[in-house]
Design a protein that fits this description.
Layout (H helix, E strand, L loop, with lengths): L1 E2 L5 E2 L1 H13 L4 E7 L4 E8 L5 H6 L7 E8 L5 E8 L6 H17 L5 E5 L7 H7 L2
Parallel strand pairs: 2-4, 6-7
Antiparallel strand pairs: 1-2, 3-4, 3-5, 5-6
Family: Belongs to the actin-binding proteins ADF family.
GO molecular function, one term: actin binding
Protein name: ADF-H domain-containing protein
Length: 135
Amino acid sequence: MADSASGMAVSDECKIRFQELKTKTSHSSIVFKIDESLRAVAVERLGKPEESYDDFAASLPADDCRYAVFLYFDSVGKSTIFFFSWSPDTSRVRTKMIYASTKDRFKKELDGIQVVLEATDPSEMSFDIVKDRAL
């Protein structure tokens, strides 16, 4: 496990699942959670390949922070890997600080991210925004 600036480790499973998303498209998305008791970022949820963007967005908690990646395909089949830093206004301040201090180091562990979006409410990560930002 690699350590981040906040002292949070990044589990090997995070990197393995991200590689699977990139190379095998065996997941449409991955949601990551910081487990404070383990002091590590871990995989919380793997999106099935047939799941939609709406399914992915609905999987993020309304009142807690998460990191997530989503594999977007445009109408001609070109893919873009999005990294989301989800930090809703209703989440605890301490949690927001931990996620903010861990984000850059965690992103570096996931080689291949193409677009980064930070969101504090669902409107900041609407599907229209994703389509507009896709490469």
